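DUF11 domain-containing protein, pasting as requested.
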Amino acid sequence: MALPSSKETSSLNELQKKLDQGTLTNVRLKRSNLPPEESVDASDWSKDIIDDYGEPGQSSSWRKIKNFLVIAVVFFVASLGIASIVILRGGNLISNANINLDLRGPVSVKSGDVLHLQVGIINHNKVSLEAARVLVEYPDGTRSATDATQNFVRENYNLGTIKKDEVVNRSFDALVFGGQGVQQKVKLIFEYRLVGSNNIFSKEKDFVYTISDAPITMAVDLPTEMNAGREFDFTIELVSNSPTILSDLLLDVSYPPGFQFKSADIPSAPDGHVWHLGDLASGAKKKVTITGFLSGQENELKSFRFVVGPAQNQTDGQTAFAYADALKNLVIRNPFVSANLALNNQSGDEIVVLPAENINGQITWANNLTTDIKNLQLELKIDGSIINRRSIDAVSGFYRSQDDKILWNKETSADFETLTPNDKKQTGLTFSILSLSSLRDTLARNPQAKLTLVVTGERQTASNQSETVRTEISKIVKVLSVPQLATQLLFNSGPFSNVGSVNPKVDQQTSYTVVWSVANPYNEVKEAQVVATLPVYVDWQSTISPADEKLSYNSSTRQLTWALGLLPAGSGFDSAPREVSFQVTFTPSLSQIGIAPTMVSATVLTGKDSFANTPVSFSRGALTTSSLNEPKEGASVGIVSE
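Structure tokens follow.
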């Protein structure tokens, strides 16, 4: 087919441009005369033109419309089918919304009375609910309605199968306790399964009630703020609201950290926080007054908890449940006279020391008042047997050995006569910890000492009355356990037979037995392990004795690890030490002539002291061929030769 002339091509381009711009109006197309001998065949058209405009019924737009219509028809037919099935079969769809849970009871109940709950369950689903059960979760302190000593946390009730539109009713009883006005919540959980399914479905319902009255009214008179270190009193008054006698009452007071119990007007248990009060008649009262003091930082919040109830028994000091429960808070204010005790520059409540360690103590005190404090006295009490009493030396103080107290006052130094406002002073002391052998003789387990510093003085009040000011702080000193590790290299003895010579020969294989032993004088050590490495010229023989010891070798890192785990206090002292043996070999090289090659690198024992809550470690140097623990055969034992 002949191509259009350049003139005709220009006209076509101009026409195409107007079509693209939308400005084609009143245009007459000039027809060109085609040569008569040529005919145009559609098969010769450019494929691009066919792709752009398409043959009849095969354009891309038509194909998209046709596909969309087909998908829409299929979806519509499927929807009609599903809807028909649901309608014809009655719609067996399961929903929690079709299960009605009704939980009813009193909105208020007296503490110690029975709470009656009624539960109604209606199944509005089109199918049965199988393996149905009800779980009832009660608040803390709830007791069985039939046995008040039995704690009631959760009850389970099996209901079996609940049919379509079936109604199930159940009732629950429990003894509830709590403080007056306290809101408590019972949670009901309904569980079920569907026919042919192992899945468990559930629905929950909560019921809230209020404790309207308690059999005992408890009133606590506790200051809202107090100076640190200042002695103070607080009272707990109990009044019976019960028409009957309340038997075997027990008062339990939980103190905050930093509180020091001093005394009470009614004798308590030895720990100072439990009182067995006996019986309380209807309308009767009992009052307990407690004396003590607090340590802490400025604005620190301290919480006291008070619980009264019948004793669970006469020995364990616990309430079976609570008739009344109260929480009271107190804010710490700066003490009138502040004090601090630092040991080896450590000011925490606990410090950890080593056997035979020398301790430098520094005591500071300051006046936080706007008036003078006179006649100051410092008293440091030492409780414990870890300190070498002969080593105690107090700067400007006096150590009284009969009661293990160090005293400072105006008789020992003029610094204690008067402390002016905002004035700060200090003094010091030194002592040493007993040696390991002495500690073993006095305390075989968890050695520690408690140092208690009491600072007292006198100040004039606004009414010109003399008042004693007092601050007390304490510090615990714990001695860190020192687990010990022994390492040996053997040739002629031990659990294995060795080859070669005590004095290794070049190119001749020699084997040795390595023995590790571990002892622990006091304080349990956990996570203990021993680690070492083998040089590149030493080979591991995979022989261990005893075979049940957890000794492993990593061929990639050449590291040996003995996982000891727990080291009981006294191992190797009160009982045999932990011990493991293993065998290694090496073939000396010419480059090692005249030396004693290393067989095992430096060996390290690590762990954590459970009592002191502090990591511990002990190490031994490398074992060489000259480290043989054998009778010496000349001065050159273990030296490589040809």
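Note for the archive: The CA atoms of residues 105 and 155 lie 17 Å apart.
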